[in-house]
């Protein structure tokens, strides 16, 4: 018997969906089709999904606004990796009879990437590696020390607190700030509560962003805030692109107002080939790798299969929001 329902797995760049999860629990009821490309144009996406009953989308790579959901009459289940997704219109999904489910997501991968980027910046890893491979200069940079330096964290939640503890292990002085952060919470993690955002930025040698995106945090770091930072300081953002004003950061990097920055998130993803951030000086950039690990993907797609099976059995699990 041919499968009745059709499932599209979107933006599976590394073809990991079927290699890291067992889809046999739904194989007799669902035809699974994976796509390795990215469609940002809504018309093309609506055309691709016109005959699809189930969609599995990875994190927030694709938006599902009302304008798209209204054009997908066959869609009944939308599975998003993670239990928080800011680009799905849940009201429109409900209006169209679409159930939205999530999956677990580990905080460990973004913590590890944050430190990979911070260390890469501090020791000029990429530049030195490129020079060595090109038979260029032997030792062309002088690294920045971590021990005894001040790490300023914007946000001290699940990810920020783990970043803080690693900073302490390196012998750094760690401070944190957010609108709702209390002295008790800072003391619990073993870090200092900064008196203000401005103080945190002005005194820190490394600043790392670990905040949820909302109206209070959108463009929290702009030109005025970047101007407060030391010329020798570094900024790392593995959280949400819109928290840092991209144009202001680009201008600061070009003018040498800060020593450098590392980004894993961008206003437009994938980043266009001619985007100025691709050639910005003093920038270490990665293509949103924060959550991209084998274990995390196995969780995403493994639980996506569970979500589909539960939905087909009439008892949806991990329903969002």
Outline the fold blueprint:
Layout: E1 5-9, E2 30-34, H1 42-48, E3 54-57, H2 66-69, E4 77-80, H3 90-95, E5 99-101, H4 108-123, H5 125-133, E6 150-154, H6 158-169, E7 173-177, H7 183-189, E8 192-193, H8 197-203, E9 206-209, H9 223-228, E10 234-237, H10 246-255, E11 260-263, E12 283-285, H11 294-312
Parallel strand pairs: 1-2, 1-3, 3-4, 4-5, 6-7, 6-9, 7-8, 9-10, 10-11, 11-12
Strand order of the largest sheet: 8-7-6-9-10-11-12
Task: Give the ordered list of helices and strands.
Answer: EEHEHEHEHHEHEHEHEHEHEEH
- Tell me the number of structural domains: 2
Overall pLDDT level: 97
What do we call the CATH homologous superfamily of the largest domain? NAD(P)-binding Rossmann-like Domain
Q: State the helicity in percent bands.
A: 25-40%
CATH class of the largest domain: Alpha Beta
Number of beta-strand segments = 12
Contiguous uncertain segments of 5+ residues:
none
Outline the biggest β-sheet: 7 strands, parallel
Proportion of residues in extended strands = 5-15%
What is the 3D shape?
A: globular
CATH topology of the largest domain: Rossmann fold
Corresponding CATH architecture of the largest domain = 3-Layer(aba) Sandwich
Over the alpha carbons, how many angstroms does the gyration radius reach?
22 Å
What assembly state would you assign to the polypeptide chains in this entry? single chain
Derived structural class: alpha/beta
């Amino acid at each position: 018997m041919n499968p009745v329902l059709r499932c599209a797995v979107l933006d599976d760049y590394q073809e990991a969906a079927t290699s890291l999860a067992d889809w046999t629990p739904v194989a007799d009821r669902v035809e699974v089709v994976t796509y390795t490309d990215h469609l940002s144009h809504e018309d093309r996406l609506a055309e691709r999904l016109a005959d699809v009953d189930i969609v599995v989308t990875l994190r927030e790579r694709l938006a599902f606004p009302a304008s798209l959901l209204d054009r997908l009459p066959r869609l009944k289940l939308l599975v998003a990796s993670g239990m928080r997704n800011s680009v799905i219109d849940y009201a429109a999904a409900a209006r169209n009879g679409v159930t939205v489910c999530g999956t677990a997501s580990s905080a460990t991968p973004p913590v590890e990437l944050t430190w990979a980027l911070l260390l890469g910046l501090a020791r000029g890893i990429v530049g030195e590696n490129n020079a060595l491979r090109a038979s260029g200069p032997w030792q062309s940079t002088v690294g920045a020390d971590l021990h005894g330096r001040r790490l300023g964290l914007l946000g001290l939640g699940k990810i920020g607190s783990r970043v803080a503890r690693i900073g302490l292990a390196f012998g750094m002085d760690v401070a944190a700030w957010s609108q709702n952060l209390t002295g008790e919470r800072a003391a619990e993690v073993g870090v200092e509560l900064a008196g203000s955002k401005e103080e945190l930025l002005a005194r820190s040698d490394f600043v790392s962003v670990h905040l949820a995106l909302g109206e209070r945090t959108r463009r929290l770091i702009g030109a005025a805030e970047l101007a407060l930072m030391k010329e020798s300081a570094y900024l790392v953002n593995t959280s949400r692109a819109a928290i840092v004003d991209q144009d202001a950061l680009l201008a600061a990097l070009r003018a040498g107002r800060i020593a450098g920055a590392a980004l894993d998130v961008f206003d437009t993803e994938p980043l266009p080939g001619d985007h100025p951030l691709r050639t910005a000086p003093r920038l270490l950039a990665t293509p949103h790798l924060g959550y991209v690990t084998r274990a995390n993907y196995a969780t995403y797609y493994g639980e996506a299969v569970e979500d589909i099976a539960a939905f087909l059995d009439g008892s949806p699990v991990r329903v969002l929001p």
